[in-house]
Structures are given as structure tokens and as C-alpha cells.
Amino acid sequence: MTGPQQGGGLDESVATSAPPEVSSAFDRGQQRGENPQVAGADGPASTTLDSRWLGTWRRPGDRRRAPCRVCGHTFRLDDTVYLRHSADGKLADVTHHLRNLPCSGHATPSEMPDPRAQAAFFRGVDAADPSPDTLHTMRLMPDDPALGHPRQRNACFVCRHTFRLFETVVVCPCSPQDRGCLKAVHQDPARGLGCFEQWRSDLKVVQCPMNFRTLKGS
Fold first, then answer.
1. Which of the four pLDDT bands, split at 50, 70 and 90, describes residue 87?
2. Domain topology for 114-199
């Protein structure tokens, strides 16, 4: 008789013989059960793979899909949002409901972070642990033009999500050390945004994503 294997436990994933589509349907059903606000009640809700507002959404009466109407940022997986429904029960409005994006208007002043304190914190982090020079990453600080503005946000051309404050990106991936444009791509593994490495696994750019020209020396 053998004892329990080291590292075993109830938290480990259990192998299943169910087809992938069945397993995926089960996961989505579980997400719905854990996210009852999606059933039609006003209030906070979590963004899941099943959320109709994931990325962008089409407001009633609009022809185009759009991001959050307040901050202009896209809705990412696991973002907490605030839902509002019309009298007939249809979804009428979706806004962010996060500490850094208190678009819902329901965040109390004590919950809202101080951007200056955050900026000072990240400057200290970057000074203590600078990023490798090979990728020329930069952190998006307040007023950085790469962030855009609420009416026209800039987005990563790999994941299609807008750039948020304090994320690290590669700006002008063709020539990051001497920027020729504001085209940017996420490179922030700490936030699960390794878009540059996903786009160019060898970390070399051979074609400009702005004008699609092949670069010299490629």
C-alpha cells in the first residue's frame, strides 16, 4: 500500500474523458452560476468568456460595438463591471467598476487610488528592478501620449485591448530606442500581457506593423 503522493490534493485538476466542447460548456455554466448578476439584475458583475461585453459591446440603438463609455477602455477578462438594465430587463449600460477605473460612479473616495502615489511606487519598482534593454520596454505613466484619451484610446495590435495606466509596452517596435511612431504592443508578463513575445517569439521585428514594409537587415 502506498501513501499519498506529494503535492496531491483536492485543488489539482482532475482528468476527464469528456469531449473538449462539453468541458468548455460546463466551465461556462459554472461561470454563470458564480456570476448571478448576468441573469438580469443591476449591480457589479465579473467579465467572463461568456460576457457579451467582453472587449467591446453594442449599446442599444448603436450600430457599432464600443468600449466603456466613461473611460474608453475595453473590457478585459475578469474585469469587474457595473450593469444597468432597462425597464424591460434588457442590458442597457456597462461601465467599469474597478479601483483604477471607477466609471460606475459607485466607488467611494476612500476606495479610489492616488495616481501620484501609484506613479511614485512604480518608479521605485522600475529603479530597483529595471527591465532588460533588449526590448526597450517603457511603463505608461500619466499623460503619456500612448495612452490616448477617453474618446480615442490606443490599443495593442496583438490583443486588441486598450493600454492602461502603468502597464509596460514596447512603443514603435521597429525602432523602440528612437521612436518613429506611437504604435505599441504590450510586453507586461506580470499582468499576463506578453503580447510582443507572442507576436515575435524570436523578439525580432521583420515587418513594420504600421506600414507593413520589410525592415532593412531582416
1. confident
2. Herpes Virus-1 (3.30.40)
